[in-house]
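Now for one specimen:
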Amino acid sequence: MFLRIAGVRSTEQSGIRGGKIPFDPNIIFIVVALRLFNKIDVFLQKHAKVFDLYLEMDNGKSIGLFLQEMRKKQIRAEAIETTKTKVPGNFSSIVVTMWVEHYNMRAELIDEIRNLDYVHYVEEM
């Protein structure tokens, strides 16, 4: 597949013999740059001290218990967004922005949160 040179409708107008329009080297640069930026993004996400968690809990009271537990562990909950369920008996869900001292604490913290009785689902966003 060959790309069309800007403003040229055919190979005759471009002055290129053989009927093929050359491949644009800028495309190669763009592809390499995007792959590099993707690797940098993954590295930064793995080493971030601030991250978001989505949690589903028993009810609204569980949110207070969760925040008390995080205070005991000296972990800051920066921003909290809650949603109320319209169907009785369903779980309350929150999105919380957590701040930890060192990025290695994240996996351990998420495992501890999963083991809490009132937490039904945890996902890092």
Q: What stands out?
A: The domain at 49-124 is CATH 3.30.70.260 (Alpha-Beta Plaits). Residues 7 and 14 are 9 Å apart (CA to CA). The beta strands are 50-57, 76-83, 92-99, 119-124. The first helix runs from residue 11 to 14.
